[in-house]
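Reopening: structure tokens for the alpha-D-glucopyranose complex, inputs below.
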Amino acid sequence: MTRSWYHSSNIYQIYPRSFMDSNGDGIGDLQGVIQKLDYLHDLGFEAIWCSPFFSSPQADFGYDISDYKNIAPEYGTMDDALQLIEEVHKRGMRIVFDMVMNHTSDQNAWFLESRSSRNNPKADWYIWRDKPNNWNSLTGGSGWRYAPERKQYYWSSFLNFQPDLNYRNPQVKQTMLDIVRFWLSKGADGFRLDIFNAIYKDKDFRDNPFTLKLIPAENDPSGFFQEAKYNLNLTESFEFAKELRQTTEEFGEKILLGEVSGSRQLIRRYLGDAVNDGLGLVFDFAMLNFKFNAACFRQLLADMEAAYPDPFMPVYVFSNHDRRRSADKLGGDVRKEKLLALFQLTARGVPCVYSGEEIGMTNLALPFSSALDPLPRKFRFIPRFFFDWLGMTINRDDVRSPMQWDASKNGGFSSAEKTWLPLHPNYAEINVQNELQNEQSLLNAFKALLKFRKANPAITQGSLELIPDLPADVLGYRRVYNGETFSVFLNFSDQPRDVKTEFREIALRLTPHDDGSGSALRLSPFGGIIVSP
Ligand code: GLC
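Re-run output (same inputs, fresh job):
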């Protein structure tokens, strides 16, 4: 029941295509990431997770891999990947690769062979059936697709150019575990595991039970009409998490961060039942449903503490390359963004920050008709405002616009005439350079908070208890470790709020107006403060 190094780390997610373009082709690349490592290191990020940069037809921008041991030319070469690992390590940081184990591209040589006949050596490497059952994919609608070569259907959990591998075939499992070993031997510090909850499917392909949900919840992959009982979160997947853990432990303690969806009770099981012997961390996307008020965040903390008690650790994530950006949800109000950062970086958990989140980048609003992302094509007959009304991002291009480094051409991202996705028009104001210069910026709040975390084990390793009897729109919690204590107070109101509390000194404040003395604190509207009692 011990904790691992990554339980007190933090993670910064890089979407390489949009981070930094070093060669002027309008597409971010690995050398670009290397150029910006000092920026991340200065901010205080300790680990980076890079979305996939392996060989791929890029139909889902790298989440459709055709060769797991090679690099897509637009991102660089194997030497660039090795250099990236080395440069990350030189700075005392870690690098997490994105491992898409569940499916490959339909252009992967394994699949081309598998689909060519019913009796080739890879015939059983994917999931083939004579007839589809009623299962829906994670993107809605049947996940079965007919292949005339075999007169059979293959299964895809996501989009139908991403056929699922068959982990019941021992060769498949060994091949994928060997790919994991391959990258660990090159120095990867772990993996983010793409839709890991879909890895195993029911071996008898039983139909899913009927259910009716008019609006499925954020973390509920069941869809509108069925419960994903037989295609997601199978016991075999929980067991496989342990096997994967054993494999990675051949190389020491490595991050295994599962992208899993389902009820909290289910996804929690990927960590191991009694002890932490499965994946080390899981995303719990239900928190993306947050409402910006104290009650909601109080409940979130209580739920997380109950579901992930020490030595388990929740992951606090509010944005990624698939979901609406948090700053967008907060209406671009920097005070609220800073408050969210204060919460994310001081709650008991591993914070995972998506590039651009640290400067408050917001969504683009691109039409579905011109989307590069394959997902909105599936929904092209449903008007966009319906999803906007639900607060859902279907066109993921909207959250993948290039990183805004400065106010120069293309936001300093690229010297190309045209970048792969347009820059957000707000890049002239919202950019790294501006925010580094502005003491009160969101970026500087991130920097101060990351520094504070690093200096104080109470924040990274301490216990958490909620502070009772506060004004209704103030959230307060105490972090305690080895005799060291900090109290954190967050004001979710647009009015100042007074808090009665004995404290010795103010350790950190979001604005100069978050202040107090002796036994009283005054929090500014959406202000926040950390004090030592
Ligand atoms: C995950 C990724 C997403 C990708 C999908 C299929 O949800 O985050 O970007 O499209 O899996 O691999």
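The chain has two domains: 9-102+169-205+230-448, 462-532. The chain has a mean pLDDT of 96. Marking as resolved unless the reporter disagrees.
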